[in-house]
Structures are given as structure tokens and as C-alpha cells.
Design goal:
The protein contains eleven helices and 18 strands. By secondary structure, it is α/β, with parallel strands linked by helices. The structure holds pyridoxal-5'-phosphate. Pyridoxal-5'-phosphate binds next to loops.
Length: about 375
């Protein structure tokens, strides 16, 4: 975990901050949020943004279409935090565990609308065995795996249909419908996106048809994941809602799927700590302490590594130690005189969700290049 500065940094320039530091460009974040809202509106689909990339109250407010309504969280800590701060319609989009029922019951009492997701019989039994707060029912979505190979009942299997039927038959459960996270969209390239999306939608709709055939209705048919939510196609009209989270910050991985590098709204400020001309490298004070190493892209992705230097995209972070990052040129030489020891540079991360997780404060940069706000993300554990 990167160091926390307990004193306020509002008004400071980036060069004055402790490093590594997670920076958010307020203008870009606001623009990214509006673009996703506009695109869902254009598709005539409801939009339930996901807080997984930032886990803050401030960004949740920027993301939501209707003031403090219609949001999705991946951890109960986040649901509890948002519920205590005015949010009133929250989807807890993580496989429900029986052990969490006491916390879920408290949330259901507090919120006008709490929605849950399940993909197995233990979770459905936990809901059947627990009475919801008086006058309410458990509102539930069934997660369907349409190719992402993560949570969800496999779209072709029989168990999902049985679970949906069991929920429909339970008086205190309102079966809302289905939701598929299109995580496999991250595996391909931009050229594969439409095919991946359409295959997921087709599978999801086939599953819905099987439910319709036994009179189990789906009022919600949702698809998630930033890469597919940024596309548009006629098949999408058959859905009812989209869920995405990463688009708020974006990252280099998203750029390999069509996002413009200029739309990356977060950077890591880091200090140059050494020059090593004999091996054409410099070291910065940001290693695993400040950059996600998820997917080991430093070694897998030669062009971008773990991060690119914002000011000089020909420089990448090619390797990370616990507290140091190795910066080298993708091609050609390095002009060390431009990056004196002690100077601050900014990194564009390969993976913004995993990177933001390492910080307990974000410095939000305004138009004047100075810290305008400080956001404190909720810990996920
Ligand atoms: C179930 C689910 N839906 C939606 C999202 C948001 O996806 P993305 O970060 O690609 O926008 C996530 C992210 O982890 C997720 O797990």
C-alpha cells in the first residue's frame, strides 16, 4: 500500500506530492462518465455503473444517471458505504454467500432497493431460508456465464433454469432476471469485440428463452464490461441494461480495445530515483507498491509493460520490484537530462482497477494542474 498523507494536499502541484501518488484528472473522469451515460441513452438501455474501479463516493455520484440511484458494487463494504451516504438503489453484483446474510438483511432494511446476484443453490437456499425485512422481497438476478468463465451458471446447463424456477416459486423472492459479465472481451483485440459481445448476447437470450418457456419472466437482461459497453450494435437492443466500471478511468489495456490514450483519466505520479545510462534505464519509486502487476504484462506486453510514461509514451515500465520500477525506452535512446533525479513523472497504468486498489487516497487534479479534491476509496477487505 502506497503511503498516505494525512494532511490535505489541496492546492498543491503534482511535483509537490509524496510519491507514488494516484492522480485523477477531474475533467477527463467527468467526460468519461458523461460519454457512457450518453451512449447508453442512445442505445435506449438502462445503465447501472459499477464502482469497482474507484470505490469512492465522489466518483459514484459522477457515474450515476439518476442522482444517487442505480449503482452496482462488487463488495459489501462498498454497498454499506454508499447506503450510509444517500445511495438508495444498489446492486450487490458479487456471488452471494450465506455467511453474509446478516449484513445483507441490514442493508435490505435500510435501502429502498437492494438487488442481489446468485449463481448456485447454496445462495438460493440462503435467500429462501432468510425472511426479508417486513414488506420486502429479495430482489435477485441470476448470473449467467456466457463465455467469460467466471461467476455465473453456464448458459447451456440445466442448473440455472432450476435455480430460476426455484426463485420464482419462493414467495419472498422477486426473480428479476439475468446478468452476464463479458470479461472475455478483455482477452481479444478490438476486432474481436463485436463477435464476443454478440455471442454473449445470443447465449444470454437463448437462456432467457428457456426461462420464458417455463413461464419464468426476466424483466432485467443485463450485460457488463467496459469493452462491450463502449460498442453499439443492433443486438444490444435486446438487452435491458448495461453495467460497466473501468471506463471512468480507462487504462492502457482498454486502449488495446479501442479507447483513446487521451481518455485515460488516471496516472501515477512517481519520482526518478536513479539514472543507469550503461543499461539505458532509470529507476522510479513506483514498483509493486504503486502499480498493478495483474497479468504480468511487463513481460507479456513488450510495447507497454506495466505502464507508459505519460510525457514520453516511448518510455515504459518494463519491470517492477517491490518499491522500484524500471523505466526504459521502447525503442531508441533515453535523454536522461530531461528527467533529473528527484523529478516527478506520470505513468499511465496498464490496469487501473488493480492500481487504484493500492492507494488509500486519490489526488484529483483540476484544470490548473493542482490538487482540487481528495477522494478516499473504501477498502475491499
Ligand atoms: C460482474 C461485473 N460486472 C461489471 C463489471 C465492470 O466491468 P469493467 O470493469 O470491465 O467495466 C465487473 C468488474 O469487475 C464485474 O465483475
Amino acid at each position: 500500500m502506497a503511503p498516505t498523507t494525512s494532511t490535505s494536499c489541496i492546492g498543491k502541484a503534482v511535483s509537490e506530492l509524496e510519491t507514488p501518488s494516484f492522480l485523477v484528472d477531474l475533467e477527463k473522469v467527468t467526460k468519461n462518465c458523461q460519454a457512457m451515460k450518453d451512449s447508453c441513452k442512445g442505445l435506449e438501455l438502462a445503465f447501472r455503473p459499477c464502482t469497482n474501479t474507484h470505490r469512492t463516493l465522489e466518483a459514484s455520484k459522477l457515474q450515476t444517471v439518476e442522482k444517487e440511484k442505480g449503482i452496482m458494487c462488487r463488495s459489501l463494504h462498498e454497498v454499506e458505504h454508499l447506503a450510509s451516504n444517500g445511495f438508495d438503489d444498489i446492486l450487490y453484483g458479487f456471488p452471494l454467500l450465506k455467511a453474509h446474510m446478516p449484513r445483507i438483511s441490514k442493508l435490505a432494511e435500510k435501502l429502498t432497493s437492494l438487488h442481489l446476484t446468485v449463481d448456485n443453490c447454496d445462495a438460493v437456499c440462503a435467500l429462501k431460508d432468510t425472511a426479508p425485512p417486513s414488506g420486502k422481497t429479495w430482489s435477485v438476478l441470476l448470473m449467467v456465464d456466457c463465455g467469460a468463465k467466471r461467476e455465473g451458471v453456464w448458459w447451456e446447463a440445466e442448473d440455472g433454469v432450476k435455480l430460476a424456477q426455484a426463485m420464482k416459486d419462493c414467495e419472498h423472492i422477486t426473480f428479476k432476471g439475468v446478468y452476464a459479465f463479458c470479461g472475455n472481451s478483455y482477452e481479444g483485440t478490438e476486432a474481436d469485440l463485436e463477435k464476443t459481445r454478440d455471442e454473449a448476447i445470443e447465449r444470454l437470450l437463448k437462456f432467457v428463452e428457456r426461462l420464458t418457456a417455463i413461464d419464468v419472466k426476466c424483466t432485467t437482461i443485463g450485460l457488463g464490461g467496459t469493452p462491450v459497453c463502449k460498442t453499439s450494435g443492433p443486438n444490444m437492443k435486446k438487452l435491458t441494461e448495461l453495467h460497466s466500471g473501468n471506463y471512468i478511468f480507462n487504462d492502457l489495456q482498454q486502449c488495446t480495445l479501442g479507447t483513446k490514450r487521451d481518455d485515460i483519466a488516471c496516472t501515477i505520479a512517481t519520482r526518478v530515483v536513479g539514472h543507469y545510462p550503461h543499461r539505458k534505464q532509470m529507476l522510479v519509486d513506483c514498483g509493486e507498491n504503486g502499480l498493478s502487476t495483474s497479468g504480468n504484462h511487463g513481460s507479456n506486453n513488450k510495447e507497454m509493460g506495466y505502464a507508459l510514461v505519460k510525457e514520453e509514451p516511448n518510455f515504459r515500465v518494463s519491470a517492477v520490484y517491490q518499491d522500484l520500477g524500471v523505466v526504459e525506452a521502447v525503442s531508441g535512446d533515453m535523454d536522461f537530462s530531461k528527467y533529473p533525479i528527484g523529478s516527478v513523472i506520470q505513468l499511465l497504468p496498464w490496469h487501473s482497477c488493480g492500481t487504484s486498489l493500492l492507494y488509500n487516497k486519490y489526488h484529483v487534479i483540476g484544470k490548473d494542474g493542482k490538487v482540487a479534491e481528495e477522494w478516499s476509496p473504501i477498502s475491499t477487505c
